[in-house]
Amino acid sequence: MSLPLEREAIKQLTEDLEVIIAGHLAWFRQLNRSLLYGSHVNKTDLGENAHLHTSFGQWYYNGKPHPLSGSPEFIGLGATQQAMHAAARQVLIDITEQRRPPLDLYDQCMDLALRLNTNLRRLQLEIIGELLSTDSLTGCASRRGMMSKLREEQARAERIQRPCCLCLLDFDRFKRINDELGHRAGDAVLREGMRFIANALRKYDTVFRYGGEEFLICLPGLPLHDASLVIERIREGLERLAIRLPDGSTHSVTASFGLAEMHPRREVEAIANADMALIRAKELGRNRVEMWREGE
Fold first, then answer.
1. Dihedral sign (CA 15, 17, 23, 26)
2. CA 82 distance to own-chain centroid
3. Residue 296 has pLDDT above 70, yes or no
């Protein structure tokens, strides 16, 4: 799962799901009390729109665009919840009319309630995994799972016979920014600089925080020359970017870039080659793009 959200929004989503799961379990407990002990039946559960009045329903059917709305898992939650409330309604009608509900209907209701809880918890864990795999400052992917992702892109490139390039970038003289302007200013440079870079890339490119002020960009489907044109546009745009610092002032920044093409089963070597190209870019004056070519 890949969510187009800031880290705080992803964190809020996990917290919302915790509240929804707790609400669902409270509803499930009350349902069982009604069935087993003849406790008070909530009249809301007897309505055909009962699914709209739970914590899940208020979250799921609020009419606002939802970041998960395009995923099959999210769509499946609604179908399960509606079927669960339909079954619960029939069971509760039997109870209020002092009839014993059919066993298969009772089993269906229980199975759907447990399935909804399981699927909600699974979704929450996937989102937590997304949170853990995202760098908290920049919103880029962290190094957690980076090699696995690169191997996937490498296998895909081999399968469709299209190249895949890696680019290492390093913000120029970043230590001086931290020393002279402070770490909060340095954080602003990384955060806003990488937001600009991420927005300039395609939706299927991936940016990883490789370490400190160094980032790794994966560019599927691009040969080395075409990738260099993309990165050169990014370099030029970054150079012109006015980054607002915490004190209200603005600061400009540059970066150096090293490009290399991945080859089958040699993803680690491709990173090393991109690093050598990055070193050359720094040696030649910084704020430039250098390419590593086979045989160098």
1. negative
2. 27
3. no
